């Protein structure tokens, strides 16, 4: 026993107990060793302090360790506290990591009691595992799988039910700052999931023109981009400007507008619209971007889900977006004075934008207008008058003293047509009657030929200059791949009358005719 007990207050200037080994000394044992029954309880060697007894540090203040704290018990080791436990890494002015590490298949387990929770961040834990913090320009949490293969997954959420689910089985819920659910991914009554949200339309971003859109505007497509329609029943309407869609597709941008394509949306109504009832079809009008009740066949943009009247003071009503062509009042159905079989429908107007085929007879009681090519495979009967364009037939005049006239078509044929021409004598009934009564009449005609017939025109050429004004009627008929048939070469024949004599006869006829007129 070592005891220093001075009789009066005294201060020692040195160590009360010191064990020292000099430079030349060494020991393989301990410098100090407390034993019981031969077993060491507490020992101090030149390299370590070993204690076989629990230690109690009851004084107020910190216990400092300059290096590692190693638990050598391979069975179990604990850090226990009778009060809240804080583990901090580094000083407040540093940014040191706190690492929890295990090896191989060892797990890091947060084992809380039934009502216990785990919180990462600030605030308080509301559920078993809570990540809570405040970041202005980033997210509060991220789950990343760095595997770059084709079968990588990011997050798996598992519920305990087996078989078919229920709508109350919610895999993910989306809440706002007031803890109000604004959307969720929930189970269906089958083996699937459904997405539920407060937004009730599907929208996409479209490139727009310079139009400044507002919520509820009708959107149509123009050459410069999305715009507001300003004409009745615009055929290019695609949707309504949306601000709170349930689903959103595309990339946002300053030159984009978010358009609701299907679903329920508020729609602007023009004050000029007729009263609207639930279920009425709506279309565009002359008021840019605003809808009116559809009263005639044409393109519509939506169906009203609530009523409206001009004196209601409402600027918008809720509608179901569904751009379609429709006949809201059945104007195309025309009453017939005779009973119509149940399998027939009489239409006043019918527009078909694609190909159509009629299996049986087709009867058109009114006019038939064909803008494109018309091919008729069977026989064609024209009961009434048939009119052709000005390039199909006409008249031509060769004035006195001239030998030819050229006819140019207004529109070029695909290939030279077959042209015929006939002399025409415009005269009154008296002269015609005299010519008929005369046993011999010299008619006003001369020999001619059709020359230089091309796809753009032809020429009527006389053998001699016209002795009077000669009028002709002509036709030009376009025939696809016309045939040319040649006569067989004739056998040699006896000489015929002299051509000079024939020419003299013609000259005498025209001279006599000229004298008679």
Describe the structure.
This protein is mostly beta strands. Among the domains are: 21-52, no CATH class; 201-326, Virus Head Decoration Protein, Chain: A, CATH 2.40.300; 393-477, Sandwich (Immunoglobulin-like), CATH 2.60.40. It contains 2 helices and 24 strands. The strands form 6 sheets. Strands 9, 10, 11, 12, 13, 14, 15, 16, 17 and 18 form a 10-stranded mixed sheet that branches. The model is unreliable at 500-505 and 507-517 (pLDDT under 50).
Features:
Immunoglobulin-like, 517 residues, 3-stranded antiparallel β-sheet, disordered C terminus, Virus Head Decoration Protein, Chain: A, 10-stranded mixed β-sheet, mainly beta, 2 helices
Give the arrangement of secondary structure elements.
Elements: E1 32-36, E2 39-44, E3 49-51, E4 118-121, E5 129-132, E6 170-175, E7 181-187, E8 193-197, E9 201-207, E10 218-222, E11 225-227, E12 237-241, E13 247-249, E14 256-268, E15 281-284, E16 291-293, E17 298-304, E18 316-326, E19 393-398, E20 404-408, E21 418-424, H1 429-437, E22 448-451, E23 457-462, E24 470-477, H2 499-516
Parallel strand pairs: 4-5, 9-13
Antiparallel strand pairs: 1-2, 2-3, 6-7, 7-8, 9-14, 10-11, 10-12, 12-14, 14-18, 15-16, 15-17, 17-18, 19-24, 20-23, 21-24, 22-23
């Amino acid at each position: 026993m070592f005891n220093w007990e001075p009789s009066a207050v005294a201060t020692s200037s040195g160590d009360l107990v010191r064990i020292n080994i000099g430079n030349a000394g060494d020991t393989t044992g301990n410098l100090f060793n407390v034993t019981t029954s031969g077993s060491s309880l507490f020992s101090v060697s030149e390299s370590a302090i070993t204690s076989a007894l629990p230690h109690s540090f009851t004084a107020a203040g910190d216990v400092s360790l300059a290096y590692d704290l190693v638990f050598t018990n391979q069975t179990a080791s604990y850090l226990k506290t009778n009060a809240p436990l804080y583990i901090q890494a580094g000083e407040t002015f540093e940014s040191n990591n706190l690492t929890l590490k295990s090896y191989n298949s060892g797990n890091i387990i947060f084992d809380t009691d039934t009502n216990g929770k785990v919180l990462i961040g600030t605030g308080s834990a509301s559920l078993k595992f809570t990540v809570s913090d405040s970041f202005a320009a980033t997210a509060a949490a991220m789950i990343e799988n760095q595997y770059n293969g084709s079968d990588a997954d990011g997050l798996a959420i598992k519920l305990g039910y087996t078989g078919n689910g229920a709508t109350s089985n919610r895999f993910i819920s989306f809440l706002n700052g007031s803890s109000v659910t604004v959307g969720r991914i929930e189970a269906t009554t089958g083996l699937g999931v459904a997405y539920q949200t407060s937004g009730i339309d599907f929208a996409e971003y479209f490139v727009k023109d310079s139009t400044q859109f507002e919520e509820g505007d009708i959107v149509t497509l123009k050459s410069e981009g999305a715009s507001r329609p300003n004409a009745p029943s615009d055929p290019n309407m695609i949707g309504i400007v949306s601000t709170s869609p349930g689903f959103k597709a595309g990339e946002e941008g300053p030159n984009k507008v978010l358009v609701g394509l299907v679903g329920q949306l508020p729609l602007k109504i023009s004050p000029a619209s007729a009263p609207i009832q639930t279920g009425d079809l709506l279309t565009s009008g002359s008021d840019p971007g605003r809808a009116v009740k559809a009263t005639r066949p044409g393109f519509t943009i939506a169906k009203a889900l609530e009523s409206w009247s001009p004196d209601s003071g409402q600027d918008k009503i809720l509608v179901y977006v569904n751009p379609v062509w429709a006949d809201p009042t059945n104007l195309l159905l025309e009453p017939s004075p005779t009973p119509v079989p149940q399998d027939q429908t009489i239409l006043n107007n019918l527009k078909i934008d694609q190909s159509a085929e009629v299996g049986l007879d087709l009867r058109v009681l009114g006019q038939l207008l064909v803008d494109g090519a018309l091919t008729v495979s069977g026989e064609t009967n024209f009961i009434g008058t048939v009119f052709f364009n000005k390039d199909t037939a006409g008249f031509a005049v060769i004035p006195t003293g001239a030998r030819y006239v050229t006819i140019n078509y207004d529109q070029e044929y695909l290939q030279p047509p077959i042209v015929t021409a006939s002399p025409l004598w415009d005269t009154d009934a008296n002269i015609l009657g005299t010519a008929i009564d005369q046993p011999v009449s010299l008619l006003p005609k001369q020999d001619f030929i059709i020359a230089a017939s091309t796809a753009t025109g032809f020429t009527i050429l006389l053998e001699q200059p016209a002795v009077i004004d000669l009028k002709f009627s002509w036709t030009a008929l376009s025939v696809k791949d016309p045939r040319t048939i040649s006569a067989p070469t004739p056998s040699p024949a006896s000489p015929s009358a002299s051509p000079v004599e024939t020419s003299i006869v013609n000259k005498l006829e025209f001279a006599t005719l000229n004298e008679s007129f």
